[in-house]
Amino acid sequence: MTVELVGLAALMAAVTYPTRALPLLAPGFERLPAWTLTYLRLVGPAMLAALAAVGVLFDADTPGIRIGVELVAVALCVVIVAWRRSLLLGLVVAVGLVAVARATGLG
Amino acid sequence: MTGATPDLRHARRRLLADMSGIAASAFAFGLVFGLSARATGYSPLEAVASSVLVFAGAAQFAAVGLVAAGVGWPLIVLTTFLLNSRHLLYAAALRPWVASRSTAERAAMAHVLTDEAFALASVHFKRLGRPDSRGYWLAAIGAVFIPWNVATIMGVVGGSSIADPTDLGLDVVFPAAMAGIAVALIVGRRELVAAAAGVACAVIVGLAVDPRVGIVAGGLTGPLVGMAVPATPKEAARDASGEPPIGDPLP
């Protein structure tokens, strides 16, 4: 069993805990400039969208952009989350679509 | 709950009802995290360490994707910090409610302060009109920490019984989950522009340089583009108030 990534988890925890603890333990810390708070607020959607795009469009074995059923599945998930506000439903539909496509030779 | 007043008992019953949906959701995504981590090569110990020590779903999912892409640890840690910096706002909003608790208890409370714990505790305190530290622990541990960690173990260990996850389409879970969470975080025009710019930048840099660089470039420059969009009066008021960006459906 590998343990190397336990070190990564510890480092991630080391930068996560202060964001949760400092305002609770050191009042005033949260009074960052407004532009900083706005930037931090926008990091989540930008970073996660970038991860999704690279995850679905790039393949280590294929140069360039990969367009396939996976892209359709992710787009469907986005539509469902925006429409029904249910990530779970979106994931079930996305996985189901890809599974069916691959089973029938379309994906 | 011995010695609780009728108001407190009633509020805690409502808290338990609120917790049920959150617990189910945390369990489902913990399972998906465990499966994704296993598919990326995490050992059970590594996946559990992530869920126990970091205990921040979006950042944990992001780390799985970045590890799979071969991104170096310093950038993964930076990404984690940026993704979790929203907790500053939660903790700041929660502080007046828990200021009377001991330093040690507040330090412990901080570790389990997630999107869901904040949402549940805030509603519970407002409903009661006063703080209830036992309610906070109930929400944070019962609705999120335990389901998330139990499901992580089940996913990373039970995933070994699945011969080829790609046959079942499980490889699409990660990008779909990232896209879905991003959508859940979009509560205004600026978030939408930041996400779109993040995607555009990630793809362009990914093609021109490397997909791993594209992820970080998109995540860091997307917010700058979003900030260039003039804020609506509602967004300006929200920015000025420091209101936490509730919407992330993960711990």
Topology:
The complex is a heterodimer of chains A (107) and B (251).
Chain A (H helix, E strand, L loop, with lengths): L3 H22 L8 H24 L11 H16 L2 H17 L4
Helix pairs in contact in A: 3-4
Chain B lengths: L5 H35 L3 H11 L2 H13 L3 H12 L2 H12 L4 H9 L3 H14 L4 H26 L14 H13 L3 H20 L2 H18 L4 H9 L10
Strand fraction band of chain A? under 5%
Biggest β-sheet strands, sense, barrel of chain A: none
- Uncertain regions spanning at least 5 consecutive residues of chain B: 246-251
Helical region count of chain A?
Answer: 4
Structural class of chain A: mainly alpha
Shape of chain A: elongated
The separation of the N and C termini of chain B measures: 26 Å
Q: What is the oligomer described by this structure?
A: heterodimer
Largest interface: A-B, 75 and 108 residues
**Average of per-residue pLDDT values of chain B:** 86
Question: Low-confidence runs of chain A (pLDDT<50, min 5 residues)?
Answer: none
Q: Which percent bin holds the helix content of chain A?
A: over 70%
Order of helices and strands of chain A: HHHH
Please, could you describe this protein's structure?
The complex is a heterodimer of chains A (107) and B (251). With 107 residues, chain A is mainly alpha-helical. Chain A has a domain at 1-31. Chain A is 74% helix and 0% strand. Chain A contains four helices and no strands. The model of chain A has no long low-confidence stretch (mean pLDDT 87). Chain B has helices at residues 6-40, 44-54, 57-69, 73-84, 87-98, 103-111, 115-128, 133-158, 173-185, 189-208, 211-228, 233-241. Chain B is mainly alpha-helical and 251 residues long. In chain B, 54% of the residues are buried. Chain B has twelve helices and no strands. Chain B has two domains: 6-165, no CATH class; 166-241, no CATH class. In chain B, helix 1 (6-40) runs antiparallel to helix 2. At the A-B interface, helix 1, helix 2, helix 3 and helix 4 of A face helix 1, helix 2, helix 3, helix 4 and helix 5 of B.
